[in-house]
Amino acid sequence: MTLWQQVLTIAAVVLGTMTTRFLPFLLFPEGKQPPPFVRYLGTVLPAAVMGLLVIFCLKDAVFTAWHGLPEILAILAVVLLHRWKKNIFLSIAGGTILYMVLVQQVF
Questions:
Q1: Half-sphere exposure of residue 100, counting CA atoms within 13 Å on the CB side?
Q2: Is 36 helix (H, G, I), strand (E, B) or coil?
Q3: Which residues have CB under 8 Å from 9's CB, separation 6+?
Q4: What CA–CA distance (Å, rounded) separates 84 from 91?
Q5: What is the pLDDT, as a whole number, of residue 2?
Q6: Residue 13, CA distances (Å) to 21, 66, 99 in order
Q7: Does pTM surpass 0.85?
Q8: How far is CA 28 from CA 14, 31, 48, in A?
Q9: What per-residue confidence (pLDDT) applies to 41?
Q10: Can you give the pLDDT of all 107 residues of the chain as single tens digits?
């Protein structure tokens, strides 16, 4: 790769990053109400993304005999921790730690 190709690649990456960072502020300036569709997406997408992540995490899990039990217990721990403390970081960290302990030490 030549020096010019490297420079152009870096410039394209910087331009793409800056565009995606600044575009929302240009489209939705402060003090102006976003369109109803955007507000609707803001309320619906977090749950949809969490559901997608659960499906993605479980897509390769094998649910035979004891397989799949660590995944189910970790998901249950995440749900219970989040209902109890309402802290996303604690929920995700607790579920991850429990899953790692179950996979490496128990199963």
A1: 6
A2: helix
A3: 1
A4: 9
A5: 92
A6: 12, 46, 36
A7: no
A8: 22, 9, 23
A9: 92
A10: 899 999 999 999 999 999 999 998 998 888 889 899 989 998 999 889 988 988 988 888 777 777 788 888 999 999 999 999 988 899 989 999 999 999 899 88
Sign of the torsion angle spanned by Cα atoms 69, 72, 78, 81: negative
Looking at this protein, which amino acid is placed at residue 75?
Answer: I
- Alpha-carbon span 95 to 14, nearest angstrom: 36
Q: How many residues does the chain have?
A: 107
Burial of 68 by CB count in 10 Å (0-12 exposed, 13-18 middle, 19+ buried)? middle
Cα separation, 48 vs 60, in Å, equals 20
The amino acid at 106: V
